[in-house]
Amino acid sequence: MYFTDNGEYKPSNVFIVWGSPGAGKSTYIKEHYEYGDIVVDLDYIKRAISFLPKSESTNTISSVSIKIRDFLYDLISGESIECKNIWVVSALPEETNRIALSDRLGAKLIHIDTNKEECLKRAMSDNDRKNKDFQKIIIDKYWKRYRRQDDKI
To answer: Whole-structure pTM over 0.85, yes or no?
Structure first.
């Protein structure tokens, strides 16, 4: 919920921006972000609580980061965050998980539909992504699990 410029109290707009690692989810948000928006991104949470490079973590950092992210999800679902837009970044290759999170947060899903080859190319050329072998692994893992709505098995 947030107050508009004319004093109306309105529900926040919640967006889940999803797609493969390297697809351009953060870039999309940076292009649509408004001053004061909230961004929930596990990579940024990890970086906020450690000095580890983008997309790298330890088991301790990962488990703490997930707890922080889940706490933020609870705040979002309870409409306890006062801002106009809330952006949630996640891969979510499986439709059931996308729908469940969208329902939980009352969010609109925005798919950044970038093909695997382009995602790999971007990840390999991104200097913030230090462990290139790990990037290949997580991108491959995403594409093995990903199904479009019309790709029912």
So the answer is: yes
